[in-house]
């Protein structure tokens, strides 16, 4: 399978995800690139929120796309394609961290303890001090310190801009859980950072063109 040209991408950009899925299933497999480029940033942010590691998040992205391509006929349209794809990435991310026993299921008592410990307990290393000169870097560091379960809700809601229902669907939790975790995440971040960072969160975890190209090329190499 070959990557398609910019002109071809532009020509198909006006179609919905669901329409492009039908075209891919009909044999125009190269158009899967349109879906990847359209959702790369969202999938990266979802995986990165769980894994807290850039390179591993990219690995998960590749695997999620391979899994989605292999099971594309199972997409039934009950949720949006973006939500379906995000759930694949979330599932793969959680499987990885749970295998390594470094993901704690969020509960109210643990969350309250972790939130209270966020401020004043983090000692940045020199690399982090350099990154923290940029506001987006400061926000990323603060978000990474949020408890498991709360962190990915915040990233999908505040950074990626999903609504409550779509966040719940993407993470397979209730809307009430999303609302509670999002509220607690904002309170924790406000204590830790938001008084200084303001509303700059949407600039964090950007997925730049070079990384986008690398992921697309790697996925196409794998699905051949």
What does this structure look like?
It is a single chain. The protein has two domains: 6-101 and 207-223, Rna Polymerase Sigma Factor, Chain: A (Orthogonal Bundle), CATH 1.10.1740; 108-203, Winged helix-like DNA-binding domain superfamily/Winged helix DNA-binding domain (Arc Repressor Mutant, subunit A). It has helices spanning 6-12, 17-25, 32-51, 54-70, 81-99, 108-118, 126-131, 135-144, 150-159, 164-171, 175-197, 209-223. Helix content is 69%, strand content 0%. With 224 residues, it is mainly alpha-helical. The chain has twelve helices and no strands.
What is the secondary structure topology, with strand pairs?
Layout: H1 6-12, H2 17-25, H3 32-51, H4 54-70, H5 81-99, H6 108-118, H7 126-131, H8 135-144, H9 150-159, H10 164-171, H11 175-197, H12 209-223
Helix pairs in contact: 3-4, 3-5, 3-9, 3-12, 4-5, 4-12, 5-10, 8-11, 9-10, 9-11, 10-11
Put the structure in a nutshell.
With 224 residues, this protein is mainly alpha-helical. 69% of the residues lie in helices and 0% in strands. The longest helix has 23 residues, at 175-197.
Summary tags:
224 residues, mainly alpha, Rna Polymerase Sigma Factor, Chain: A, Arc Repressor Mutant, subunit A, 0% strand
CATH homologous superfamily caption of the largest domain? RNA polymerase sigma factor, region 2, helix turn helix motif
Number-wise, the strands total 0
Number of helices: 12
Major sheet attributes: none
Q: Specify the overall morphology.
A: globular
């Amino acid at each position: 399978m070959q990557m398609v040209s910019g002109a071809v991408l532009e020509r198909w950009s006006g179609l919905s995800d669901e329409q492009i899925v039908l075209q891919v299933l009909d044999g125009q497999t190269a158009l899967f690139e349109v879906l990847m480029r359209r959702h790369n940033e969202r999938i990266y942010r979802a995986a990165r929120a769980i894994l807290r590691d850039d390179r591993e998040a990219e690995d998960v992205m590749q695997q999620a796309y391979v899994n989605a391509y292999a099971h594309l006929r199972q997409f039934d349209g009950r949720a949006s394609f973006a939500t379906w794809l995000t759930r694949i990435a979330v599932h793969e991310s959680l499987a990885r961290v749970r295998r390594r026993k470094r993901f704690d299921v969020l509960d109210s008592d643990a969350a309250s303890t972790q939130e209270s410990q966020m401020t004043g307990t983090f000692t940045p290393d020199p690399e982090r001090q350099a990154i923290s000169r940029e506001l987006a870097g400061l926000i990323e560091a603060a978000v990474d310190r949020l408890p498991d379960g709360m962190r990915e809700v915040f990233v999908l809601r505040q950074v990626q801009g999903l609504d409550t229902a779509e966040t719940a669907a993407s993470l397979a939790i209730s809307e009430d859980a999303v609302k509670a975790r999002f509220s607690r995440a904002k309170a924790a971040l406000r204590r830790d950072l938001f008084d200084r960072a303001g509303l700059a969160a949407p600039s964090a975890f950007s997925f730049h063109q070079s990384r986008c190209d690398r992921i697309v090329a790697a996925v196409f190499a794998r699905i051949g």
